[in-house]
User: Fold this.
Amino acid sequence: MNTSPYPTYRPSGVEWLGDVPKHWKVRRLHYVCRFAYGDSLPSEAREDGETPVFGSNGPVGTHDEPNTSAPVIVVGRKGSHGEVNYSKDAVFAIDTTYFVDGRYTDSALRWVYYALLCADLGDVSKDSAVPGLSREDAYGKRLPLPPLDEQRAIAVFLDRETERIDALVAKKRQLIERLQEYRIALITRTVTRGLPPDAARAAGLAPSPRLKPSGVEWLGDVPEHWEVKRLKWSSPRSINGVWGDEPDGENDMVCVRVADFDRRQFRVILDDPTERAITGAQRSGRELEVGDLLLEKSGGGEKQMVGCVVHYDHDEAAVCSNFIARLAVAPRQHPLFWTYAHAALYAGKLNYPAIKQTTGIQNLDSGAYFDTPVAFPPQAEQVAIASFLDQETGAVDNLTSRVEAAMERLQEHRTALITAAVTGKVDVRTRPPT
Assistant:
């Protein structure tokens, strides 16, 4: 396979294309393919059959009747406007999308898909209450148009190479999932059973303490010298946050939002802090201190339960928003240990019975949640456990970050490869035998 440049080029007159192979044409999208509107389909009718239902971001359900012939390209019209998806099968494209109407497409459909990926259709959106992709404006986009045999060669090359890259990305994503499963299993095991023998010896603790039945299903047996009590005794004070008003230059201070939660490392991240005007009366009892825990009381969703708890370790004066409660840790209790204990409860979905669903928003019943029985190690052991978990989860996080960086490089290579082939910067045609 030849991946060197073409012999000769000419200016395309299009900034994103640059020079194109001399024998290629440049045509407006309207002459390459046509967009048809997707159909209206109530959300409750999206799970009725086997035909994939495509929205702007891809499949969102199934339906019993397709409205396109296979295969098809689906382009986001509302929401994620300009998002390009491809299906090998018949689909039902809903009204937030366009689909490429094959009746008006003389090009290789798979090549059109790659060309649309490069065209950045999202930059021709119409500003409105819900920004969307204007079909008429999109038609003005200019695309490279190689001969049909080259379109097919490009599509075959990119299918093969992107499939190889996607397989590598999938393996790395699977590795990340396994690392996260190991991470939470380690946390849960340690906050319910104590330190591994070697770590316990290093901390001056008994390496293999005798166990006793906890009488609690999720805990199982716990070290004999640990107590089992309700979660509320770890944080007897819970104060709901406040949203305040628009900044006024006098009462402004940082207001921590759920968006500031680092759900992997269970910390508050203030890279982009939100400031609100919080009066003196509103601040009373709500100003955060290092060592406080923050409990997400409202929010969540289908893919992410409400009830995440994070540790506040910033010196900056702040309050938390009205969707969050400030938890002051009880005397002789270690904040980081309880951060990990809450993480184990969250991962085990032990907060689920305390969740109430109203108008699409999950709300956590704090009373029910804090009634959960948990294990209480002595304070010195809590400190040792937290230190051990900081070290071990930090190592997992470092490895995860390296894997994520490798995934990002693969994705960047994938994008660059598609762009180079679609714009003719490399010649991917099979050389004739010599």
